[in-house]
Amino acid sequence: xxxxxxxxxxxxxxxxxxxxxxxxxxxxxxxxxxxxxxxxxxxxxxxxxxxxxxxxxxxxxxxxxxxxxxxxxxxxxxxxxxxxxxxxxxxxxxxxxxxxxxxxxxxxxxxxxxxxxxxxxxxxxxxxxxxxxxxxxxxxxxxxxxxxxxxxxxxxxxxxxxxx
Length: 164
Known about the structure:
single chain; 164 residues; elongated
């Protein structure tokens, strides 16, 4: 009966390991969904803290990607040799970094300020581009009108043809 009980305990531990790793992977999946939503907002993050916010955001995003890849590779080793320490440590780092990303970047109060500033900059750029387009169109019309008026004046004044 002791051997059967040991097998049951081993199976239970194995299921707990798999469940823990699956929970980490689900958290990573939800992080990617949140990341997609965040990046679709088209907010200029370089406006915040003179670009430091964006720099930290990019570094953390890269670190999450790298650690998740490492954690997946370590998890495959768990299946072959039974150890979970390295895989669990890496997944824990990924999980902590995701929490940092959510708290410091996705839910940062600075995001609303940057959103308003980005919209304002976009509106100003659009207005300036429209005005420049109108002015260049007017300038082009003026130049072409002058060119055609010169060419039409030269064709209207007949050159006397000498009589023989």
